[in-house]
Fold each of these.
Amino acid sequence: MNAPHQTEPRDPSDRPARLAVGVVGAGRVGPALARALQQAGHRPVAVSAVSDASVRRAERMLPDVPVVPPAQVLERADLVLLTVPDDTLPGLVQGLAETGAVRPGQLLVHTSGRYGTSVLDPARRAGALPLALHPAMTFTGTEVDVQRLAGCSFGVTAPDELRLAAEALVIEMGGEPEWIAEGDRPLYHAALALGANHLVTLVAQSMELLAKAGVEHPDRMLGPLLGAALDNALSSGDAALTGPVARGDAGTVAAHVSELRKHAPATVPGYLAMARTTADRALAHGLLKPELAEDLLVVLADTGAEDTAEPEGGER
């Protein structure tokens, strides 16, 4: 029997239903998503950028793609990525719809975690097809962002008739669609901000304190520790809690607070707030013994007058 005929892989540009892609807002997210769609065979045709930094980013990430005003982006594109700050998005959509820039049948995609598709209602009434595709990823504005999209979850909200289209776009960008109901978008986004954004603040503060303690390479010291803590937390949740708060070591925690007041008073409120939350969760999950919790909670409640001190540098 003859071996089955092997066909040559098709070039992505030969696939059907390839779209002309436009980007409104060349921040860190839009150019990366456009590049990912380009790798899937779609064709970036226009990008809008305001600041010098965004113009340079567009030129670097999307070379040979013309930088034009937003209305011209919509004029040229079948699929438009609205990648602007959350607070800017409603006014942008309203303005594009009122000026007649939106075309019937045009896919209009925003990447805000906060909003579902209702923010696109003005454009929908003009005939646009609305999608909310939010990549649960932090972006740098460089080529590495495209690589990080592989396996990245996207918070997706779409009308029922567009669910397949939304899923296909996410998969083409290398991501995994996670469906979020319209009314759950603010909670979904708050959860991501609580984890990712606050993590950056905590890590930055920790590195600064280690440097003050004489550690030459704080990043090297923290990397393995935080990597293990994150892996444990993702796999075991609260069962992964360790450290003096979870153990009920009130004396150690009091020493921490005392040292932070001396050397970094601006970090004290955050330390106390996180320690109280950690204690509550450790108690609820049986990790912190009730007889040890009493002294610990006294330490954490004794904020002292210094907690209200101005941040280092003396300016608000």
Note: Strands lie at 20-24, 43-48, 79-82, 107-110, 129-135, 153-157, 176-179.
Amino acid sequence: MKRRDFIEKTAASTALLSLGLSLSSFKSDIQHVTILHTNDVHSHIDPFPMDDPRNPNMGGVARRASLIETIRQENPNVLLLDAGDIFQGTPYFNYYGGELEFKLMSMMKYDLSTIGNHDFDNGVDGLTAQMPHATFEFVSANYDFKNTTMDGFVKPFKIFNKNGIKIGVFGIGIELEGLVDKRMYKETVYNNPLEATQDMVRILKNENKCDLVICLSHLGYKYGKEDSNKISDLKLAEQTKDIDLIIGGHTHTFLDKPTIVKNLEGKDVLVNQVGCYGINLGRIDFYFDNDKSKSANGKSIIV
């Protein structure tokens, strides 16, 4: 064996083993799916200024778009998702009411988003008014909009097919009462997130045979003792089964890499959240073998 060939094969072996794959399992038909995600961007269109005390020269939609495009060139099998709170936080929202945010996300070719509590800040009717500017769809399995103007704009889940891999994505939102003025969300009904999740998992995994099940959550990563009964992403992962990845929002939690949680059956669930304001982009890479067994690794990328 030539020295160059040996070095290349050794490097490939090391990289694969770090992902939990053996070299013998690496064949040309292994499928690679990349999940990119944001949360709690809060209308931050521009980068933070150079003199910002906490996030100098970080974030910005143009940089995020460039980063996303670079990753899409590496791997065409990409899903771009958002976990809510797209609105509220800069004068862009105060002036345009969310139009600019939806138009820019559409230009970046987001595939799907769920709805956060601040997305009601111009009222449910204000949210509805911006929907024509979004070319991507919205999912929420526990918000019932049937008696509001948002009826028909939100689905409980969506199934994607990426090169033969079926990916089911559903949304879960936080309780609005006490968090959002009733006048803002009107007749929107909040249903139990745990029960809604169990329904979604049954539909996506058992009925539709999805190879990958993702929850887009705006519940929050975790809560302290004073809110010990409040459902969070970590609790949702522990108390359910057949979810592979929970992409979270609401608590502005900065994670360098996904947290691994054991579910009801003792299997691993990845839980990730990338802070807020578009400072980071989350990336989770899934690798599927011939029998659809999978491994994954993830990280947070600074924008």
Note: The helical segments are 3-18, 61-74, 91-96, 99-107, 123-130, 182-185, 193-207, 233-238.
Amino acid sequence: MLRIGPLTLQTPVLLAPMAGHCDLAFRILCRELGGVGLASTDLLNSQALLRGSRRALELAATNDFDQPCGMQLYGNWSDPLPEAAVWATDNGAKLIDINMGCPVDKVAKKHGGSLLLCQVGDTVQLASRIVEAVRKHTNGRVPVTAKIRLGWDPERFVAPQLARDLENVGIAAVTVHGRFTCQMFSGEADWNRIGEVVSAVKGIPIIGNGDITEPHHVPERMRQTGCAGVMIGRGALRTPWIFAQAWHLLRTGEALPEPGFNAKCRAIIRHLELLDLYNPGAPAVDCMRKRISWYGKTMGHCRPLKDGVRLADSTQAMREAVLPWIQPDREHVPTLVSRSPAPL
């Protein structure tokens, strides 16, 4: 288990809030496959939330099958982040996360995301305001966390001091992506520097993030750094079952076998079912057209399957493209974790 303030997570393996990827359907798919301690929404613009933007409300949507749910907010010192955090606690969030690490222009150019790393004093004051607003509104029941990078560039390695200062104003946990902003997603994540952040704080959990693509990376990085948990981002797009594998390895020391081909096909079909429930029509089709290439990376030579999905014009046609690939002679590898009943 992983304790973040008053919140207890059943596993220390978390799904990262990836812009454009962490829709409700995908979060529920990962949860059903098992091992997810916490999943968070896509990045939420504080101003858009409070004015009721349709797109922002879609991104913030959650339900009972998506718990505990974190909501990640972005903005800067002049934005209504405390008010947006209060809104989130009233709309299903069990944890509020402040984005201080996103390097993409649409976030950083508005002085949010990684630009918050450049003015540490002001950023800590902003965090203090958010913590206080959420504490008063929820009577301390909902923790506030932060997701940061190592700094803007190697000359400004601010993460240890920033994490310590955030802890002092009540931030309940800090997730550290092991790259500088100037790297974007290139190069390798520096887990040794994540370890320096772990050493810098007094007691709050530090969660490591970056380049987790295999189940064994989770216990290895936790031992290397002393971090209390691991957050998985892009690695989950091709293997949403990685959380179950990593959690089993942490609990038992035993590695689960790779899911069989049939199990992966069934995961794709389940993903389509969830898209039909929560994002039906053209958005569901567009989503799976993008996702099938990620799934295909783990399925060997299956170009006809991928092409069949990409060329389909409906989720039903996509299912029909996948179903013939499920064959009894491919059942020699154990299936994925069974799912809970579909939320209808």
Note: The chain has a mean pLDDT of 92.
Amino acid sequence: MSLIENTISFVKQKLENAEGGHDWFHIERVYKNSLLIAKEEDCDLTVVQLGALLHDIADSKFYDGDETVGPKTARIFLESQNVAESTIQHVINIIENISFKGGNFERKFNSIELEIVQDADRLDAIGAIGIARTFNYGGFKNRSLYNPEIAPNLKMSKEEYKNSNSPTLNHFYEKLLLLKDKMNTPTGKKIAEARHQYMEDFLSQFFAEWNGAK
């Protein structure tokens, strides 16, 4: 099998019992989004593919906040596939710099490949899929749907963001609605516009129903 086929097989096995918003199907959607965006960019397609497939191989939120597990897991696998060190390091840089982390995280690495995979990952966090993933994770963490007495915190530090237990609906204001203006590529920005509007419409309907409107 090819490197990409081997990577897909590895990721499917590794994430077999993962939480529904961070499982193989999330990876597959990000992978497809990455290929779509990459068509319009001058990039190293192999790095984009590997970065997309391995970006959430061990999400820190499921490892007590340990951000080293994902990069280590990816490196061990890529070394087993005899991938060039320059490619491995590029993929590790993508994994280490892709996350939102409260919006206050300053990237320490930049490349068009990172921008592509980051846009692809963010697209899966908004729109209809983003809404479904948000409430799925909120249920997984046993969070309330919404509490009018707990306002969204728009100035969270990275640590506050990681440790937040606020109602699920607050996540729209603390992250999801901010992503449209943080997209990197023209293709990512275009797709994000429609998905952002879908979330806005959902929130309008949610609050109407919450407040007993017809």
Note: The longest helix spans residues 186-210.
